Amino acid sequence: MDSISTLIIFGGFSILGVLGNCFLIFITKKDSIKLPAADIFVVHLASANLIYLFFRDLSLAVPLLTKNCLPFNIPCMCVDFVMHTALKLSSWCTLMLSVLRLCKLRKLYSPLWIAVKLENSSFFSLFVLFQWIFWAAAYVPFLILLPNNEIVNATICFCSITTVITTHKWSLETYRLFYLSFSEYLLLVLMAAANLHIIWVLLKRHRMLFAANQWTRAQNTNRELKAAKVILFLVVLYVTCWGIHALTQNIPETIALVVGHTASLLYSVFSPYIIGFGYQTFREKFKSMLTNPELNIKY
User: Fold this and answer.
1) What topology does it adopt in the membrane (predicted)?
2) pLDDT tens digits for 119-148?
3) Domain holding 222: CATH number?
4) Is the N or C terminus of the chain more exposed, i.e. has fewer CB atoms within 10 Å?
């Protein structure tokens, strides 16, 4: 598969992802004067997904336009910087959503109380802003450490530090191991652990509601349970693909590399649909918009 074919395929997925993420932002912010903590994370997650999808396509388009396959010419550096920052923030926001949901399910009110207190002050806005700054700053060492003459380990040209082989700069390789592998796997493992715990709690609740003949609540719980399972599947797929890629990174254009990039793309495309229709608050707003579009309903 060449770069143009890959760009067309990724572009098609991006259109689907842009529609889903824009819709998620619109419904979440609709008729809301002040967003709760979870909704703020949803908005930032969807915004990060939009940025990632746009710059993911640019990561394939820029080398085609510049006729330069080296990932660290200036245009590629800018694209890769924004793309990885957005992807990291999206993973972080998903983790925060999972933690908040788990606290609510387990009735662990202390973390939720802290979140509510923070969102009612300027500290919460600063906290969310700090996430963007932190993940952007975490990429800066690559701009300093990476030489211009590295070997590219891919037959498809795209702007990404994952395609670069470094053999003589241990500081760069160590930091890349931390940034690409350790931090990403840590976020994903925490996301998987939180979703496993959520699934376990929801299974118990669903059985209890079903036994008590509370059909509506059981149905809502079942939808949320399915959403948690799909998110867990995407996380496991993501971890597996990049784990295989880490073990086979010296083999040019491995299947794991292609599937790994595709997994991160699928997560950004489908996560807004999963998060949106998997949770009751979003469905209620969506249903309200369809049935009573003229009403100014506050949530």
Assistant:
1) Multi-pass membrane protein
2) 555 666 677 888 899 999 998 888 777 765
3) 1.20.1070.10
4) N
